Amino acid sequence: MLISVVTVVRNSARTIQHCLASVQQQPVSPEHIVVDGQSTDGTLEILHQAQAGNPRLDMISEADTGIYDAMGKGLARARGEVIGCLNADDFYATSTVLERVSEVFADPAIDSCYGDLVFVDHPGEKVVRRWHAGRMSSRAFYWGWMPPHPTFFVRRSVYERYGGFRLDLGTAADYELMLRFLVKHRITTCYIPAVLVKMRVGGVSNASLRNRLLAHQYDRKAWTVNGLRPYPWTLLLKPVRKLGQWLA
């Protein structure tokens, strides 16, 4: 089974090597598709050097309209039966992550899977937050739950059937996609009870109060465009759930 990993990057020379290495060290030999947004900080040089030594690394560099536009380009190039997205600032927690993912998808009844994630600081790998996803219940999204998107792996056939990222959802594009797949279309999923990804702290949606309010509007739109009606407290609980990540 071929797994495709899609990474979008722009000016991440500080972190892209770590990301690339964490994918390349996976013994299942995944296809790694890197979509660069015309970096100017040395990222391209690192990518070209890495590509020369890794025949499984497929790289393009061109202008895009944002992260999810670039992710869509990666999805379109993916040849694997299973696809995951790994941000340029992030990396797989161990060398066995994709092996565990492959074992899950050996069951043809499974459409997707996800696991846990930890946030680490930029200078090193000190854990500052822990996102323990836990098993998904039938009404989990209605109580503010969502799986960590960098740990979310989906069969390519699901993307072909239900579509990719919507570019009109801003920072909630990944939330909308998972809501569409898991709630609206009820694809099957499996929880891997282990940390799969280490994510460096940051994030556009939480950068300011204005961005947080905008993210809230996008979250609401994610339900509306799918013809779903959240509980009155659903969207309030979504950011509140993050408090537990700091205390974990």
Note down, in words, how this protein is organized.
The chain is an alpha/beta fold. The chain has one domain (3-247): Spore Coat Polysaccharide Biosynthesis Protein SpsA, Chain A, CATH 3.90.550. 34% of the residues lie in helices and 21% in strands. Strands 1, 2, 3, 4, 5, 6, 7, 8 and 9 form a nine-stranded mixed β-sheet that branches. A hairpin with a 6-residue loop joins strand 6 (112-120) and strand 7. Helix 6 (173-184) packs parallel to helix 7 (209-224). The relative contact order is 0.16.
Q: Percent of residues in helical segments?
A: 25-40%
Taken from the alpha-carbon principal axes, the silhouette is globular
Structural class: alpha/beta
Unreliable stretches covering 5 or more consecutive residues: none
- Could you give the order of the helices and strands? EHEHEHEEHEEEHHEHHH
Termini separation: 35 Å
CATH superfamily: Spore Coat Polysaccharide Biosynthesis Protein SpsA, Chain A
Oligomer: single chain
Largest sheet: 9 strands, mixed
Strand content: 15-25%
Mean pLDDT: 93
How many structural domains does the protein architecture include? 1
How many β-strands, per DSSP? 9
CATH topology: Spore Coat Polysaccharide Biosynthesis Protein SpsA, Chain A
> Which CATH architecture?
Alpha-Beta Complex
Using only CA atoms, what is the Rg? Answer: 17 Å
Number of helices: 9
CATH class: Alpha Beta
